[in-house]
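Input sequence (379 aa), recorded before submission:
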Amino acid sequence: MSNRTIIDIYVLQTVPPSNLNRDDTGSPKTAIYGGVRRARVSSQAWKRAARIAFSQWLDQSALGMRTKRVVELLAEHIRTKSPEIAEDRALELGRLVFDAAGIKVTAPRGAGKETPKPEESGYLLFLSRRQLDQLAEAAISANGADDPKAALKAAGLKKVLDAEHSVDIALFGRMVAEATDLNVDAAAQVAHALSVHPVESEFDFYTAVDDHKQRDEAEDAGAGMIGTVEFNSSTLYRYATVDANRLLENLGQVEATGAAVEAFVNAFVLSMPTGKQNTFANRTLPDAVVVAIRDSQPVNLVGAFEDAVTDVPRLAAASERLVDQAKSVDRNFGTTPISTWVTTTRATASLAALGETVTFGELVRAVGSTVRERLMGAR
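Predicted structure, token format:
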């Protein structure tokens, strides 16, 4: 029996008129799939939404911070622990810390003698709060040394940055350009969400009234502002997968891994990108969630929708397509899940053929429990 534990998450979600994720022109993102244009929400947009949502299920101490302003961030941690250290000195210690760790920091654009700014990394750097705390402690210790730079060089800071990763670093990974040995391989993969059917963009023509002008009867009755907003509506197929074994390698503890899996399932399923949210109030919950645990490999079932759904109602047709694709793939490629749980609505009830029908809360708890049991058994 394989010791691998792969968690596949499938979601069908209907979204009314909306613009969840815009391109550089402000239009909703799209993609050609199966020869027709589909609505698309990028994986980056949904991962960002999930990361923001993590705080609902995890303590802030288990989460990380991604920023270019690492010197400023570390200086804040230094001064929180040792308020007697002056701000300028804390910033200098922060720069020395990252130099000692092999991470290049430079003055940001616009900095100069008249407008000094703390140094920044050349890219967004992902650090856990525990890593920041330990770096701050190393900086404080070095501050009392005759040669702080040498003390930090001898402190083994790379080991600090390669341990006690936060849950979001463990799930989504980290790339450090100058120090590839500090890279963290992501345990989670997220697909771009695609509509199961063709889409066409529509435009909302709007006017805004000038309240003050409206009170003056002598003024013209024209609007104070006019414009258009592009939108579409869609039934989205969403997919993500988590390699629990890799997640355990990144986090080091079975219990932490189980909690991270539960948080990811909650956050990925229930979150939503916030593009034009105030304009469209498009916040919906999924119409169906299917989570399968496999010991073989991740299986994205997007092929169910390569031939675009044209039947109405779409949700029922999409659900039947997903059932057929899952059974066909598993039968022919030997990828039958160890366990599958399904949360449905009335329109997606046919998905019950794939596994045990439960509430979403029960689904999350069952997935977390199964992951813990399998990881403990593999040790």
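Checked by second reader. DSSP finds 13 helices and 14 strands in the chain.
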